[in-house]
Design a protein that fits this description.
Blueprint lengths: L3 H5 L2 H17 L5 H9 L3 H11 L4 H14 L3 H5 L3 H8 L5 H17 L7 H5 L6 H12 L8 H9 L8 H11 L5 H14 L24
Helix pairs in contact: 2-13, 3-5, 3-13, 4-5, 4-10, 7-8, 10-13, 11-12, 11-13
The structure holds iron/sulfur cluster.
Amino acid sequence: MKSSSTARRSPAEQRALRDLEAIRKLIAPLSPPVASFEASIRSTPFRILVSVLLSARTQDPVTEAAAARLFAAADTPGKMSRLAEARIARLIYPVGFYRTKARHILGVCAALESRRGFPATRGQLLELPGIGRKSANLVLALAFRRPAIAVDTHVFRISRRLGWAKGDAPVEVEKELELLFPRRRWSEVNQILVGFGQTICRPVHPKCRECALNRTCPSAKIL
Ligand code: SF4
């Protein structure tokens, strides 16, 4: 017998939930880089925030190593704000845009030191230098377990391939996913789809033959 919450969901919503669960099981034994990265930063909101800032346009293993070097040198906003911008840039190299990110990190540290309490809403996070909507949502999900869907390049691509979303912009896809999934699952969507994108549903040459969804995915290529 279906639960009342399941009975209320549309066929598309039920299919999306089944797809998400199938993806989660498929990638679990593959140890995608995102799992190691997120495990490594699950400590303080500050560490999560800085690591998310470092992760833009950068592969997870590179981000993980850069964050480890930076936090070994300074592990609080006060200590980090006393590092020279050039030193931060050297510590985080070779993450993408390392010079800009070094400047943003100092701006974030200055903002954190000047305010009471850690920024814990999307609006407060968006006021920080270098933090856009995707990064803010990721911090909300990882640091505070708030319902938020961070739509990065993997989430955007895979949602459209699977027919979950049609939007041409990340914020449109985010809204479509929010309608498709119950709030309690929002914070998982990013990690599951990023891991899937790193291992199976890759940007080019997706491994459709190895994919558990290849019978129903409208973008499957298994000729
Ligand atoms: S069948 Fe191919 S395109 Fe569709 S979700 Fe799986 S890997 Fe991606």
